[in-house]
Write a structure and sequence with these properties.
heterodimer; A: 154 residues; alpha+beta; 5-stranded antiparallel sheet; B: 201 residues; globular
Chain lengths: 154, 201
């Protein structure tokens, strides 16, 4: 029953500027995730400075914390996609697939002529689409799912 | 067929005409050169965004888009007539069918529906189900009164002007604004009389 649970997704710009952060765990203070993401960006910098050419977009596990695993993905334009998951049974290929969908949604949002790249993403459509793929990948991650809270012990 | 009353024969004519027009549209579209749709969408979007930055006034941008479209329409009609070989329209309503099934198909790759025909006012609506101009587009709150695809109104006005029809063409609804459909209202204002050159009778 160990399905992975996505608790937070984020888009970070070319520097360390967050463009979008959405959390899916109402029990946790959002700032905690902001901090986790910020820390993981240092790892991203190390990893991407190391390799020269032929870099994969998928960066893999960035840093495990005591409760979570943080995965990273950097586009060729240096935009970073970050996913924080609950430290349960995580399948790498599922994370990779998630990043692919996340990247597609992100590039659609960037194509909006009224959006300026490297600025905060305020698109409702983007937020909804992200929430949809998160829900797809981790059905119990839904914010208002009270049933999950009661089954927590499972 | 000669015994059908005029209304019936119009209907038969229209339905036969519509079927033919759809086929004409598809055939012409099939043979015409194509362009990557993302490039087209992004280019148009960039134009609109730039106009917003330059003019800052939504009404003015609506105007500019319509003017641009008008310029395009004046020229596009030649291409349209050359490529499509549609027969002359018998009445104003037919112009709607030709625009919707052939014009839109040829240049945008999608067809539109002609609805709400008002013979007294000589008006009809064009309903666009899928508008390729608006892919990826989300209107920011500051642009609530923008008719993003207003270029289309200008194109229709320009094309019909070259065919001696002065029309008024404007958006009534747009899915970008949260409406349930995208609708353009086309009204015939005047049939432009041909000018007789001086010296001839």
């Amino acid at each position: 029953f160990g399905a992975m649970r996505i608790v937070c997704v984020a888009v970070v710009g070319k520097g360390k500027n967050p463009l979008f952060i959405k959390t899916f765990d109402s029990q946790v203070e959002p700032l905690k995730f902001h901090y986790i993401i910020h820390t993981s960006l240092d790892v991203v910098e190390e990893r991407t400075n190391a390799t020269a050419s032929g870099r994969n977009l998928y960066l893999g596990l960035l840093c495990p914390t005591e409760d979570y695993k943080v995965y990273g993905y950097m586009t060729n334009s240096k935009s970073k996609l970050i996913v924080v998951v609950d430290d349960l049974d995580v399948k790498e290929h599922e994370i990779k697939n998630f990043f692919k969908s996340f990247h597609t949604i992100f590039s659609d949002a960037v194509c909006n002529p009224f959006y300026t790249p490297d600025e905060k993403i305020s698109s409702k459509k983007f937020e909804n689409e992200v929430a949809a793929i998160v829900k797809q990948k981790s059905p119990e991650a839904h914010n208002d799912n009270l049933a999950y809270l009661s089954e927590n012990s499972n | 067929i000669e015994k059908l009353n005029s209304e019936q024969s119009t209907k038969v004519g229209m339905s036969r005409g519509s079927v033919n027009l759809s086929r004409v549209g598809e055939n012409t579209f099939r043979d015409i050169e194509k362009l990557n749709s993302e490039l087209f969408t992004l280019t148009y979007g960039a134009i609109v965004a730039q106009l917003m930055k330059d003019y800052e006034d939504v009404e003015e941008v609506n105007n500019q888009l319509e003017k641009m479209g008008h310029n395009i329409g004046l020229r596009l009609i030649e291409e349209f007539l050359a490529r499509s070989n549609v027969p002359r329209c018998q009445d104003f309503r037919e112009t709607g069918e030709v625009i919707a099934k052939v014009g839109f198909k040829m240049f945008l790759g999608v067809i539109a529906q002609v609805t709400s025909w008002d013979p007294k006012k000589n008006e009809y609506s064009l309903i666009i189900e899928e508008n390729p101009l608006v892919e990826f587009v989300e209107l920011p709150d500051s642009c609530n009164n923008l008719w993003f695809s207003n270029v289309l109104c200008g194109v229709i006005r320009g094309c019909l002007e070259m065919l001696q029809l002065r029309v008024e063409c404007k958006f009534i609804k747009d899915v970008l604004r949260g409406d349930d459909s995208t609708e353009i209202r086309v009204t015939l204002k005047e049939i432009i009389a041909e000018e007789i050159p001086v010296g001839e009778d």
